[in-house]
Amino acid sequence: MSTIFICKNNKKMEIRELKPSDAKLVLDYLCLVGGETNYLLMDSQGLGIEIEEEERILERFYNNPNILLLGCFDGDELVAVSNLSTKEREKIKHISTLGVSVKKQYWSLGIGRNLMNFMIDFAKKNEQIEILQLEVRSDNLSAINLYKSLGFYSVGLVPKAMKIDHIYYENLIMVLEVK
Question: What is the pLDDT of residues 36-53, one digit of tens each?
Fold first, then answer.
């Protein structure tokens, strides 16, 4: 599964599923983006896991038809990641959680929008998924505006969702019904 698109700076980008062989690339990417912004759950330490564990995670994503982990590439460089995860329990398996991150130098080029559209299309075609859900820091207006433009709407707040340097931030919970 792969698609090519032209982003706002006229560069050709490829979106493709991430594979276990991409584990080191993904871990390095997560350390980089975690250090570029405090909007993400991780910092410059990334996930703090070994390559073998990341390979297992990627294998699980790669072999499950109801979850998806995508990378956006500028040539060989991983510049963005998006994941869609579903629960296995019967009562909540119709809800998928969505996340997206983009390297700072690639912000505002349409990459996040392209990844989100890919995930939304995947969810609409998937028989199990009915609702996409995400959390975003309530002061991340750029991301919130993107999600709203794609049809997501707010359903609540998580108070004190993040604590950075003794300051609390709340998260906005947003959903999109795909069926």
Answer: 988 887 777 777 788 898
CA dihedral 166, 136, 175, 29 (to 10 degrees): -130
- pLDDT tens digits along 136-169: 999 999 999 999 999 999 999 999 999 999 999 9
| Terminal CA-CA length for the chain | 23
Radius of gyration over every alpha carbon of the chain, rounded to an integer in angstroms:
16
Residue ranges in the chain modelled with pLDDT below 50: none
Distances 86 to 38, 133, 165 between C-alpha atoms, Å: 25, 10, 32
Domains of the chain: 2-177 (3.40.630.30)
In the 3-class helix/strand/coil scheme, how is the chain assigned residue by residue?
CEEEEECCCCCEEEEEECCHHHHHHHHHHHHHHHHHCCCCCCECCECCCCHHHHHHHHHHHHCCCCCEEEEEEECCEEEEEEEEEECCCHHHCCEEEEEEEECHHHCCCCHHHHHHHHHHHHHHHCCCCCEEEEEEECCCHHHHHHHHHCCCEEEEEEEEEEEECCEEEEEEEEEEECC
pLDDT at 40: 80
Q: What is the pTM (predicted TM-score) of this model?
A: 0.91
